[in-house]
Amino acid sequence: MSDKIFSIEFFPPKTPEGVEKLRVARAKLAELHPSYFSVTFGAGGSTQQGTRDTVLEIKREGHEAAPHLSCMGTSRDNLRSLLQDYKSHGIKRLVALRGDLPSGYGTIGFSSGEFRYASELVEFVRAETGDWFHIEVAAYPEVHPQAKSPQDDLQNFARKVKAGANTAITQYFYNPDAYFRFVEDAQKIGVNVPIIAGIMPITNYSQLMRFSDMCGAEIPRWIRLKLASFGDDSESIRAFGLDVVTRLCERLLAGDVPGLHFYSLNQANATLAICHNLGTPSV
Ligand code: FAD
Fold first, then answer.
1. Ligand 1: which atom is nearest the Cα of residue 169?
2. Distance of CA 15 to CAs 28, 47, 96, Å?
3. How many angstroms separate the alpha carbon of residue 266 from the centre of ligand 1?
4. Looking at the domain assignment, is residue 133 inside a domain?
5. What pLDDT is attached to residue 1?
6. How far apart are CA 202 and CA 212, in angstroms?
């Protein structure tokens, strides 16, 4: 893993207890020496302050930190000042996204902002800050849920790279063939940036099903049935999830994936256990 990009994602905690819990989780995960920690950004700016506070705290601890930046429901002026703020704090990496409408908003009474797509945000970041930031964008091996077609989605992904993205992180998936096919298809149309695999540890069946329904990530039938069969037996769910995700990572690494990005959900143990199985040198 030492030659790979290896990153870990958090969301900004909403309570003082959450902040404290994240500090504890982060201290454990820091022992894996990730390339950087990233922090998600709530649609509609709901967690803009939380993202900033968490990112700056990570930076103060001496780690590289990458804020996610969504263009949904925000203005150019707001983004401009946020970019300057991050720049002034020495932040060098961003994850640039369109974002989603906050749940419960519908479309009435909520402005989707001045940008329609992440490619426009990437263009804006490049126009405002040149090459200061390393820009990551999202990629969807199993196709974004709102895409007109897989081909259209791939072209839209290429648009983000053309606009100036350096690397991409995928939505999570459990079928490595979907990832390898996506990388191959991207290369065929001349997109050669590293596409880092997004990895979602499996620890909780209902939470996983909820996330996957929202983001269009497919849970293969055999995984779904097996998880459902464990009922409330969280020990068995965790053990099975660890085995499935370890093997997924092993296949990706054997296939020369350029890196792994862990959706930690602010929990250390599942990511630590997978990395331990993978023999990450520092564990
Ligand atoms: P886009 O790349 O803009 O694509 C959105 C849809 O529009 C796709 O269907 C695409 O095919 C289509 N499209 C793109 N360009 C065009 C065009 N020019 N014409 C027509 N159609 C077009 N969400 C958050 O709110 N906060 C986060 O912090 C966050 N972090 C994420 C991190 C990762 C690694 C990933 C994979 C997702 C993350 N998301 C986050 C979720 C993301 O915001 C949603 O998946 C969102 O629906 C799409 O964002 P995007 O940046 O991929 O959008």
1. 34
2. 20, 12, 25
3. 22
4. yes
5. 67
6. 12
For 64-108, write each residue's pLDDT tens digit: 999 999 988 889 999 999 999 999 999 999 999 999 876 555 444
Residue 16, domain extent: 5-278
Spell out a b/e string for 77-106, using b for 16 or more CB atoms within 10 Å of the CB, else e: eebeebbeebeeeebebbbbbbbbeeeeee
Structure tokens at 178: 């979907």
The model scores a pTM over 0.85: yes
Residue ranges for the chain with pLDDT beneath 50: 106-110, 282-283
Phi, psi of 181 (to 5 degrees): -65, -40
Active-site residue 136, yes or no? no
- Which atom of ligand 1 is closest in space to residue 146's alpha carbon? 9
Whether 127 maps to a domain, the answer reads: yes
In a domain, 46, yes or no: yes
Residues framing ligand 1 (Cβ under 6 A): 40-41, 43, 68, 70, 95, 97-100, 117-119, 138, 144, 146-147, 152-153, 156, 159-160, 169, 171, 198, 215
Residues 31-53: tens digit of each pLDDT: 999 999 999 998 555 578 999 99
Estimate the crossing angle of helix 150-162 against helix 118-129, to 10 degrees. 10
Residue 253's nearest CA partner among 203, 196, 200 is: 196
CB atoms within 10 A of CB 177: 11
| Position 283 in a domain | no
Nearest-CA residue for ligand 1 atom 22 is 156
Interatomic CA distance for residues 8 and 123, integer angstroms: 25
Beta-bridged to residue 134, according to DSSP, are 93
Ligand 1 atom 16 nearest Cα: 156
CATH number of the domain encompassing residue 186: 3.20.20.220
Report the domain count for the chain.
1
